[in-house]
Task: structure prediction
Amino acid sequence: MAAVVLEQLNKIYPNSSHAIIDLDLDIIDGEFLVLVGPSGCGKSTALRMIAGLEDISSGVLRIGDRVVNDLAPKDRDIAMVFQNYALYPHMTVAQNIAFALKLAGRPKAEINERVQHAAQTLQLEPWLDRKPGQLSGGQRQRVAMGRAIVRDPAVFLMDEPLSNLDAKLRVQMRAVVARLQRDLKTTTVYVTHDQVEAMTMGDRVAVLRDGRLLQVDAPETLYERPADLFVAAFIGSPAMNLLDVGLEQNGDQLEAVLNAGRLIVPPAVLAARPGLLAYAGGRVVVGIRPEHLHDPAIGSDHGPARIRGVVELRESLGAVIDLHLRVHAKPAVTTETRQAAGDIELLERQAQVGESVVVATVDSRSKARVGETVELVVDTERAHFFDPETGQAIWD
Amino acid sequence: MTAETTTTTTLPRSVPTGISLGLGARIHRRLAAVPTAVLWLIVGLWTLPSLGMLVSSFRAEDAVKTTGWWTVVTDPKLTLDNYRAVFSTAGTDSPDMWRHFLNSLAIVIPATIIPIALAAFAAYAFAWMDFKGKTWLFVGVVALMAVPIQMSLIPLLQLYTGGAHLTIGGQTLTLFPDLNLAGTPAAAWLTHIGFGLPLAIFLLHNYISALPRDIFEAATIDGADHMQIFRRLVIPLSVPALAAFGIFQFLWVWNDYLVALSFIGGAPDKAPMTIRLATLSGGRGQDWHLLTAAAFVSIALPLAVFFALQRFFVRGLLAGSVKG
Result:
């Protein structure tokens, strides 16, 4: 049990690429912290620095009350689970799990007992005498977990441990890992590029981009109050719709001007985000989550705001339907949205012709069909606003 | 099976189109059989002389010198005389064959085990440890493979008999003591170690550096130092490479004549089997029928070593370690 504190951590490689920039992170004792970001954002590097597999270029790393910058990995009281398991292929499952204890010179009886206990926890008992090559992917993953928990370390470090599993197994193992962590109450740093894993597993989630920490918050906060465009675009599936709009003052109310129409900024939003007034006459990025677009034919009590578009694609997920609408509105093109976009060229082409594809997650009873022009209700009360230059969320 | 699938892809395109499918298929089948047939031909060519030698070794001197070995089919008269002659010391001043067999062992055992051990350490260091000048040192070691052994025979002999001394301004510095090694097995195996090491390091380095990095990192985090990683991970996982080099080095040293002749040639009682084999045939080669039996005596151990070690050529040793 220990807190992990990163103070102004930097990683500069000999080829002078700056992988981690001034990383400050305060991981509380017993917390499950998820490091998330696109590939190349430095999340794995950060984890490897905590593990001691990468040197720290500058800054201070504390585990518990010790500065561990110059300590060897084995002296840091950590255990790590690797993405591709990294099992010792010539040893049995029991030997794999016992390896660290054996190296530490623990008595045989104690090793046996702890291996048995770990195997029990992870339901590995029937396979203790097998070699890794005889196990399935999920079993190997559990052996890798067993190797970590048997040592009862102060900190678990996990580097995308589930990314090699198939989708169904990944969902199961997600629960296994999360429950295990809750039972053991061991501080855990978990790296993933999968935002679903990040949202479902973490007590807090830290979003990294280009070696910088953008935001670290509880998953709900991250979702409800993204600090900047990148976090907004990265967290959530389907992703938040981000439109580049003009902001006009009309009497005492603000209106967001899309090519397709106008959205009135509700007074409650304006009260929460007084900073918006400064953007009157300028441009902002408005963000609307897919689930905040509704089919007006279903339910009542809808506000007046509407957005109109042609249905390009209808994806029925059973419980809900994702509608992809071609809308007359410019998509937001910034460094952040470009990085979060799957297809940068498409995004730029859309910006050129002033059309975006807006995704709406609507009730499964919706009758909208492909090719139809539909009008959807916009829940403007829950819209997000960002500065198009800095990418920061606009609050005060 | 394999031959068939390979030729499917290499079937020449010049097969005229328009001929009946039956003929095309027949041509294909003929061509598909070619690689297998060639293989059998090579096997036959390779084995036939050995078979001839084996048969000859059991034939009497007269028969060997007057008729071909295949006449044994019509005139099967076999004898163990050649083998008796090889093992006897009558009429010679050299010790019996067993002595030479042991002499060979005294050279081949250290000359095989020591370079493998040293090379495994070096290969691990070159592959997984960081130190200054690593690249150039490795290049240097690999470059040593190009040194011809003939060029170093005289300098080595001088080193073994007189040591190496450097005299500067009346002060003599001993770089290598005078151990008077000439005519001892040590002179031979030291030389074999020196000339075996570069290739051993090169081969083992290629293998060891290809082991997945993740398991080394996992072991580091589990608390293993370099020695423990080497002993508990690298050695067990490198068994196929160690066995392969072991076989090669064993065969080279066992069959070596040049080094043995140069360093032990003057001491017949210390000479390995290869030297004895050469003298057996007589000054003018008149006793060459004895060579047939001697060769089979000499081949016995290498065969045993080969079959003993070949089971270590296990594939899939790394299975299940890392994904992808």
